[in-house]
Amino acid sequence: MSVDAATVRRIAHLARIAVADAEVSHLQSELNAMLAFVEQLSEVNVEGVEPMTSVMPMEMKKRADVVNDGEIADDIVKNAPATDNHFFLVPKVVE
Amino acid sequence: MTDLTSLTLAEARTGLANKTFTSLELTDAHLKAIAAARALNAFVLETPDQARTMARDADAKIVKGQGGPLAGIPLGIKDLFATKGVRTTACSKILDNFVPTYESTVTSQIWRDGAVMLGKLNNDEFAMGSSNETSCFGPVANPWRREGSNTTLVPGGSSGGSASAVAALLCMGATATDTGGSIRQPAAFTATVGMKPTYGRCSRWGIVAFASSLDQAGPIGRTVRDASILMRSMAGHDPKDTTSVDREVPDFEAAIGKSVKGMKIGLPKEYRLDGMPAEIEKLWSEGAAWLKAAGAELVEISLPHTKYALPAYYIVAPAEASSNLARYDGVRYGLRVPGRSIGELYEHTRGQGFGAEVRRRVMIGTYVLSAGYYDAYYLRAQKVRTLIKKDFEDCFAKGVTAILTPATPSAAFGIGEKGADPVEMYLNDIFTVTVNMAGLPGIAVPAGKDAQGLPLGLQLIGRPFDEETLFSLGEVIEQAAGRFTPPKWW
Predict the structure, then answer these.
(1) Is B158 considered catalytic here?
(2) Structural domain for B346, as ranges
(3) Does residue B350 share a domain with residue B288?
(4) What are B51-64's pLDDT values in tens digits?
(5) Residue B405 lies in a domain
(6) Which residues of chain A neighbour B213 with C-beta distances below 8 Å?
(7) What is the ipTM of this complex?
(8) Beta pairing, strands B442-449 & B193-196
(9) Rg (CA), chain A
(10) Partners of B458 in the beta sheet?
């Protein structure tokens, strides 16, 4: 399988990455090189094989459903580029 | 007094315990070496004041007999580990001036054990790379050069800063991480020892995530023993990481010097690649001969799905990366590039914040997870992964104790020599990536030099949670091959 220029733009949008028009053809050839490389997987017989979901076989750990952290709003917003009174600021979303 | 930076971690530990020198003296010697080695670009942030404070604390504890297993030992930290109050960037522009308000579990454990932080080490952006050339802080130089040449070589990656700093004697050991070979390949390129433990052995909490089902932290050390000492402090169960395994941490150092007599060592025939350099072939045979001389039995084994590990990796790892890196949105932390709408803000921030390699992988990951392609790519790759793991399980079930392979298909290469074709760079990890796909432990140990005088390493792969056997076998190789130190040019 290979991707065309329109697909490259669609992927970039899905990934929320701005891509300049001039970069599309270069990205297209790089992505196609990667897709050509992984193409060899199609020759493996995976009939009846379970996909790996857990690297080490173990039961999912659970913890008690209790509050064990919090009251750290200052920490949470400390690295934010724009805040106001413990809120993150973003451009207007609703008119 | 001998130059304190030339000691191994184990020797320094003895010197500190015997009060031959203090941690402050040891730390100052390394800070001086770091300041004189800026040409290597191994450190992206030096923390000399913090280092001296930690060293004084360690000295006070050592005097009282309360020093931990790493008391007073100066270490470098890969910039992928969150360090409280100390800038952590994953060497990406998108993290900008991120200063964590928390400490990663692995680093908190090495501080608990008394270690001293010298600073943060360079790596490929988000650990995506095999040469440390994708870092937003620029490439790292390998302290090794070809004999009679001034060409600057890469230290490997992604833990290039860790490997370069340990090889150049700037720190006594370093933390590193390995998703497809990022501890073992740079260790092999710099004649240092790198251990990637079993998946789940070390907590991933507080380490910048790349591909969560493959990422594991581990040490890079000057010797096999040094790596074993660091490993004990880095490992251990952490309730904050659901994939961290609740299992006792053994005294890995006790495995050093243990007999390997009667161990069955597998040599996988699929690792004998067409066109493999004769030097790598020779190194591999030599390694086998050393283990045989130590009483191990060598057997040829087959890992039939080996050739599919790298392509499967280049689906699984980008898929997980595209998900993990969704958090960099210009809102909560890191770089923000303004836009008229929030959508534009996301796209501009991510467009400018991610480097070329990261962007490429996030896009491939997005594509293979997108509607209509999930089954053909991601699901198939995860099935192939099951087969890769089964190959190893079948060998271990037949009584194979560990597997010996070359660590890399070549010695270190020059900066800018590879990478025009991304796949060419990916082939660096051909011998190491299978281990991540199967979640197994692997160690790279220096074993010789090529005709140009560059170090080469061998890899040992072990059964799940049997890092101890790898340390025992690694020690045999180190004893036979000797240690390699680069001539100082920087």
Answers:
(1) yes
(2) 307-374
(3) no
(4) 999 999 999 999 99
(5) no
(6) 52, 55
(7) 0.96
(8) antiparallel
(9) 22
(10) B406, B445
